[in-house]
Each structure stands twice: as C-alpha cells, then as structure tokens.
Write a structure and sequence with these properties.
Blueprint lengths: L6 H34 L3 H15 L2 H11 L1 H18 L6 H14 L2 H13 L5 H29 L2 H22 L11 H9 L14 H5 L2 H22 L1 H9 L3 H7 L2 H21 L5 H15 L12 H29 L5 H30 L2 H21 L13
Length: 421
Amino acid sequence: MPALKTLRWWMISLLTIGTILNYLTRGTLAVAAPTMMQELHITEKQYSWIVGFFQGGIMLQPVVGYILDSVGLKIGLAMFASGWAVFTMAHGLGHSWQGFAALRGLLGFAEGTTHTAGMKVVAEWFPAKERGFASGVYNIGAAAGAAIAPPLVAIAVYLYDWRAAFVIIGALAFVWVALWLRFYDSPAKHRSLSQDERDYIERGQEHHLSSDGARPSIWNIITQRNFWGIALPRFLADPTWGTLSFWIPLYLTKVHGFDLKQIAIFAWLPFLAADVGSMFGPMLVLWLQKRGITLINARKGAFTIGALMMICMMFVGQVSSAYAAIALICLGGFAHQTLSVTVITMSSDLFRRNEIGTVAGMAGTLANLGVLLFSLLMGGFVTTVGYNPFFFALGVLDLIGAVVLWTMVRAPSSQPVAVVR
C-alpha cells in the first residue's frame, strides 16, 4: 500500500474519523438499551420498532446519494453530519419508545451518508487498483465506532446516566464537521494536491466509467443487472451487522446474564474482529488478482470466502459458554466485514463517477431493508423462539448472496485481467 504521506490517504483518513463517529452515534443506543429499557419500561418488541424506524430512515439513502451527487460531497456531507449530531443529542430528551422511534428515524436519514459519501471519496481520490484498500480503511471506521461504543457509553452511563451518553457522543460530531469543511475538497479543487499525485489518480481511473456531467438516471441504474447483483447480496448480508449493532448487548444480557461492566468489556470485541475483516477483504482481492484473476472475479471470490466463514454464526446459539458464543460472534464480525467491504466497493468498479452516490444509496436501501425486516422478526419472535433460529439464518443468508453475486454481476468488457503487479 502506498505511503500515507500522499494526500489521498490523508483524505480517506479524515473520512474514516467521520465514519467512526457515525457508527459511534448509532451504536450508543444498543449499549444504553438495557438500562434505558428498564427505566422507561420498554419491551423487546417496542425496542425492535425503535430499531426499525432507524432502518426506515436509513433506507432513504437514494435521496441522500442523489443530494450528494447533485450538491457536492463537501457541503452535502457536512450538512448531514450536523444533522446526525443534533439528532443524537436529542435522544437525551426521550421519554417514550415512540419518541425514540421518531428520533431514530431522523438519525437514520442523516446517517445514510456513510457508504454513499465513502464510495464517492474513494472513486474521486483513488485509482482502481487502490480502491479496495481505501474502502477497507474507511470501513474500519464502521467497526471502530461500534467497538468504541460499549466501553465509552458504559463509562458515561456509570459516571452520569444514559441521557448524558447521547449528548456527549453527539457533540463530538460537530468537531468533525469543522475538520471536514476545513480540510476536504475534491482532487480537481484541492490546492495542496501535487500535480504528480493528480496525474497518478487520473491515470488509474477507468475511462469508460468517467462522468459525462449529467445527473444520474435512476431508471437507467435499476434496469442494470449489475445493480441488482450487488444490491441483493447486501440485502442478504446486512442483517448480520444489524444484529451485531443492535441486539448483541441485549442477547448477552438476557441469555448469559451480563451486566453493564461485562457489556463494556466484551461487546466491542466483535467489532475489533470486523476491523481486521475490513482489511482482510481487500488484501484477499489483491492476492487473487496477483494470480491472474480479474478484479470483479477476485471481489466475487473474496465475498464467497467471507460467506463460507459466516457459517460459524449457525453455532452461536448451540454453545452454552458465553465466551464460546462471543468467539463465534467475533468470527462472524470478521467474516461479515470481509464480504461487506468487498461488495460495497464494487459500485465504484461498475458504475460511472456521477452515479456512484445514487447506486450506493439505492443498494444501501435494500441492505437496510434486510436489517429492518430481520430486526422486526427478532423483536416479534425472540421472546417465544429465542435467538437460535436467527443466528442460524445469518449463517445461510450470505451463502445465498454469494450465489446471486456470481450469477448476476458481469465485469465491464474493458477490464484488465490483473491490475496489481
């Protein structure tokens, strides 16, 4: 991987910090939930609706992506990040599950910028051969933010209360907005970008995917098999992330009797494993490319390997030891990010620059629809059937996604056999 002294890697690092805060703010609820639910007498079914409203809001990613493609990444992301800061802090005023549901819906809409903006930064600032690593770097922020949440929120709850946790963590996002507005710009406008690096980025772009300046056509996108080839696997894969983000602290509390201190100690570990998976996926793609496999087929292969590792989730509910369950969940987090970062990156391989935000947003809608449906099913049935059937389902869904990916996605005819030497 190129040295971090180059400006493009500083840009992706800035985005990664924003992604950390994005997932930290959304992960605050899961850690505060056991205390909050007990105080406000919120049931698991009502909690599933709170989670569901968040997923409903984040399903508006096509709107977010279209706005980013239309008004520009710098101002658009600053606007949405300010929104998620305000809505997170407002959680401290919540007194009913209905109020939390409304706030989560607004937060979900504002936070739908994560992957839409991320893929636009990757596509603008990186040549094709570096996009896998760049996507892996900013996706580390997703797992890192979720990993930071358990100890940080638990400390805030212990020192103050769960309301203060939302206010403190929401306020951090405003600091990042100031940094983003101060330091980010596109390669075409950034005054600190050297001509050598600008030429390097431009030489590595696929010319058949360059923007023609027109607004993205949603109809043209949804009629392409490649869109459905990456969107449907995301629909099948993202219930895993939703389970890790919103249900694992409750699972550990209800099934294994964990208290707040144990949640702080153990609930972040699956996200640490996910961080490793975020980099393992791109490394696996590069390893396959060096053996003569095309970029798109290498991404399909990495997704498939991640899906095979996801089989471990079938056994989470079968073990009696809490620590064995956590170990299996950690392997699931690693496997999920291995395949997730791979399929998310494919939007920049298959679509024009001016379409990426819209494509990522619409694919994100299907991904979050999967989380929404899965969470509502969990909320409706977990008290009667337990968690085991849901863990088993997570081990199967990604295998189906791998079949869809191989069946539907077609590489551009001009794609080279290997881009890494």
